[in-house]
Amino acid sequence: MALKIRLARGGSKKRPFYRVVVADSRAPRDGRYIEKIGTYDPRLPKDSENRVQIDGEKAAEWVKKGAKPTDRVARFLSAIEVDGKPVVAWEHGNNPQKGEPGTKAKERVQEKADKEAARKEAEEEAKKAAEEAKNAPAEEEAPAEAEAEAEAEEEKAE
Known about the structure:
The chain is α+β, with helices and mostly antiparallel strands. It has helices at about 55-65, 70-80, 105-155, and strands at about 5-10, 15-25, 35-40, 50-55, 70, 80, 85. The chain folds into 2 domains: about 5-85, CATH 3.30.1320.10; about 100-158.
């Protein structure tokens, strides 16, 4: 029989109150349990002594017998010390890599960045070409004038 130390919800609608119980893992959340070892009232302030009340010795006994606490209860039990040690060593349960995008999303981001870089490069080339076009007619006029002057001089010489 797999044992769990978990929360069983009580209280009325929008007024939660939980019992910390040791139950068979197959039993319903609010159903049959083996032993009640504490309470949890989430409506009380976090610094209130009555918010979480768990009998640490009973909890330690059940953990020694093989009962596995749920994440929330493990967090509560890690704050309770029996014989100078926490009942359960709780570690932060979130996976920091869980929120990272997948490989396809990373590929899409990379493609988008490549397209943006190519677009900026094309804009820079277009600006350079426009500047050259502005400067080029002025330079082209000068040789055209020089040719016209050279023709005029040839005509005078003849």
